[in-house]
Amino acid sequence: MNNKIKRILPQLLTILFVVLVFGFFTINAQVNMDNRGIDFGFGFLSQEASFDMQFTLLDYDGQDSYLWAYVVALLNTLLVSFLGIIFCTILGVIIGVARLSQNFLIKNSAAWYVEFFRNIPLLLQIFFWYYAALRALPLPENAQPWFGVTYMTIKGYYIPSMIWENLNVFMSCLIAAIVAIIFIRVYARKIQEREGKQLPVLYISLALITILPLLSFLIGGVTLDFEMPVLKQLAQTSFIFEGGIALPPELIALVLALSLYTSTFVAECVRAGIQGISKGQKEAAASVGLTPNQILKLVIMPQALRIIIPPTTNQYLNLTKNSSLAAAIAYPDLVLVFAGTALMQTGKAIEIVGITMLTYLSISLAIAALMNWYNKRIEIKEK
Amino acid sequence: MFKHLKQLTSLFAMIAVLFAFTTEAMAKKSKTLKNTQKKGFVRCGVSQGLPGFSNADASGNWTGIDVDVCRAVAAAVLGDANKVKFTPLSAKERFTALTSGEIDVLARNTTWTLSRDADIGLTFVGVNFYDGQGFMVRKSSGITSVDQFKNGISACTNIGTTTELNMRDFFNSRGISYEPVAFEKADEVVAAYDAGRCDTYTTDKSGLAAQRTKMKNPDEHIVLPETISKEPLGPVVRQGDAVWEDIVRWSLNTMIEAEEYGITSANADSMKTSDNPQIKRLVGAEGEMGAAFGLDNEWNLRIIKQVGNYGESYKRNIADTGILPDRGPNQLWTKGGILYVPPAR
User: Fold this and answer.
1) Residue A66 confidence class, pLDDT cut points 50, 70, 90
2) Which residue of chain B has the CA closest to A338?
């Protein structure tokens, strides 16, 4: 009995403490808001937002509600985070492996890259890419095409947009190809376990994913046209490109800065992961007759990944949270639009900051959950 | 037992009397005023640097007509126009700083609108600059009127301002599609527009004139003649302290009325012997003009002596700096403008 109390009492006290602290802050906020005549409520979310956004993924107009503005701004944040995570991973893996290269030049340039980009504050890098690099870009009327049809200008990167006919046929073919590939992989594994034969899974997959969509063009009636960006004059010295897709320079600068910065940390995780596998593993794998490719794929990487994933997850979370620096360069993300303009127009500081905090928390937890799931999948299954 | 009861009742009576006195005193003396006098400085929110309105020089001295409103309040309640603590705020931060009690006066070229006055727990006390939103473009573009704007134009501005909303109304009503590029700080807007990111820069016309002076080559830019909105800019206080609200309102009104009656920082003292009772009231030589605020009788004289009248402030900060030499609507009603304040009597 006595022991039980000893065990429970500290926990009860902790709970009491948390409740009291939370209660104090709530009541304090309530009293202060009452004193200053500020109402608390979420009714504003259904009001008309009445401001425009520069760049949106879904249709948005000032007549839409604050709630819709929130959704659209959230998507912009997710877009930056998603692109940043993809690019920083690709770049990070390349740099991380390069740091272990035997080649003096490759090894040292990778090391310099890491030291350079890791040690300059991110906000400064964002400003550099936006203001310094932006000024160096040509005005639309002077822009030379990149890859023939795209234009990098001070007002954004203009690329052709795709105009599909019978897109659904094409998509069904693509999905069919992916399903077929999954089946073949399962089948190939069975064959290998039963007969020890290895099927050329990679070649079959490549063939499937190119041939099936191609067929949809030939016999499925799918057509693809491109709408090219065309220069248009607004005034004597003011031009833009019309048609195609315009990627705003704010988005480009932000993704660039975030991926370059975070890739240095990912590179270090990758290097640590590979160096964490003892040499004996490689030698043992070689001695049973595995090829160097197989050694990397079947022996080194599965073990290295277990070291790489947890710290890399942290970097992904950092990148997502850092994307809120977007506000400094006018990229309409959640912080700029919702915690900025919407907060200003409604004056609902506590509600909006609360919602924004909860949103970032949810995004971070979702990424962490996904990475934990992946980590569980690749960790050693002890029997 | 009865003895105790008697003692108890007298105690209650004393507490009640005390309480009555304190509430009486509280009504006379505002809490914000009391705090300000205890601290010894007026906490004032200003912009992060808008020449003419609120701008700090290299050694941290603030000047501008918004700054002068704060200085006037300091002169009135503390006796020294320099006892002001300035807090530079972005458009986004300003109201939160005021409602949360971080500052007591917000003089930050802020537009008086219904929703701001009614919703956010703020009270606007007057107008110290009548402004309107305009557009700036590069001279080389050949644009001389907003009628020449075409679909696809990109416009740089600040977030969290009425500008953002007016811009939408303007372009929508004309059926022009545009790209809004909204930054948090004015300096960032100027940098982006100057770099060529945007075709036009839109904000209050006074702001355009002031920011133009910061550009690499001011002569390459012009402000278009059209005004697309009404922007009455004025100081703001927190809701709920009526006395403080009155102090700030009448500090501003005193400056404007002093100009009307020709009282300047130079002649204020000599005006004490004027024949005109209205002038005598304005320099504290007649009537009890400070008692209602819990201030002495020379609060208004100090404002005029230390800060000057509105005309002096305008000349010093806006005309002489070349921002807007022409006073336009910000001229006294007696001289063709719309500056008209209730009489101080």
Assistant:
1) very high
2) B160
Strands in A97-222 per DSSP E: 145-146, 150-153, 156-159, 161-165
The answer to whether residue B78 scores a pLDDT higher than 80 is: yes
Q: Which residues from B are below 8 Å from A66, CB to CB? A: none
Mutation site, B159, B174, B239, B241, interface A, largest A CB count within 10 A? B159
Q: The tokens of B296 are what?
A: 């002495």
DSSP summary character for residue B219: G
Range of lowest pLDDT (A22-36, A248-262, B20-34, B207-221): B20-34
Establish if B182 touches chain A: CB-CB under 8 angstroms. yes
Domain that holds residue B248: 31-130+233-330
Question: What separation in angstroms does the CA of A37 have from each of A210, A343, A355, B120, B122?
Answer: 65, 17, 21, 8, 9
Helices (H) and strands (E) in chain A, counts: 13, 8
Who among B150, B196, B239 is closest to A36 (CB)? B239
- Best B136, B179, B236 residue to mutate vs chain A (most A CBs within 10 Å): B179
Give the residue-averaged pLDDT of B201-205: 92
Interface A:B, Cβ pairs < 8 A: 130
Q: What is the pTM of this model?
A: 0.80
Residues B192 and B126 reside in one and the same domain = no
Angstroms from A135 CA to nearest CA on chain B: 6
Domain end: B197, B229, B261, which one? Answer: B229
C-alpha distance from A331 to closest chain B C-alpha (Å): 8
Q: Edge-to-edge strands of the sheet including A150-153? A: A145-146, A150-153, A156-159, A245-247
Closest CA to A285 of A269, A298, A276, A274: A298
- In angstroms, the CA A157 to CA A150 distance is 7
What residues in A contact B96, CB-CB < 8 Å?
Answer: 343, 349
B199: contact with A, CB 8 A cutoff: yes
The answer on B241 and B122 residing in a single domain is yes
Among A135, A340, A347, whose Cβ lies nearest the Cβ of B95?
Answer: A347
Residues of chain B found within 8 Å of residue A123, distances taken between Cβ atoms: none
Whole-number Å distance between alpha carbons of A356 and A83: 21
What does the alpha-carbon distance between residue B252 and residue B235 come to, in Å, rounded to a whole number?
9
- A132-136, A243-247, A341-345, B177-181: which has the highest mean pLDDT? B177-181
Q: How confident is the model at residue A144 (pLDDT cuts 50, 70, 90)?
A: confident
Terminal Cα-to-Cα distance of chain A (whole angstroms): 39
Cα–Cα distance, B303 to B69 (Å, whole number): 9
Instruction: Say if the ipTM goes beyond 0.85.
Output: no
**H-only helix segments in A196-323:** 201-219, 249-275, 279-287, 292-294, 301-322
- What are the residues whose beta carbons fall under 8 Å from the beta carbon of B160, sequence distance 6 or more? A340, A341, A343, A344, A345, B90, B91, B92, B184
Comparing CB atoms, the residue among A38, A236, A250 nearest residue B99 is A38
Same domain, B125 and B241: yes
Instruction: Say whether both B85 and B126 belong to one domain.
Output: yes
3-state secondary structure of B87: strand
User: How far apart, in whole angstroms, are the C-alpha atoms of residue A319 and residue B132?
Assistant: 41
CB distance A166 to A176 below 8 Å: no
pLDDT digits (tens, 9 = 90+) for A313-323: 999 999 999 99
pLDDT at A1: 63
Beta-strand runs (E) in A55-169 = 145-146, 150-153, 156-159, 161-165
- Give chain B's domain count: 2
- Domain end marker among B229, B253, B268: B229
CA A354 centroid distance within chain: 23
B142 touches chain A (CB under 8 A): yes
| Helix, strand, coil abundance in chain A, percent, nearest 5 | 70, 10, 20
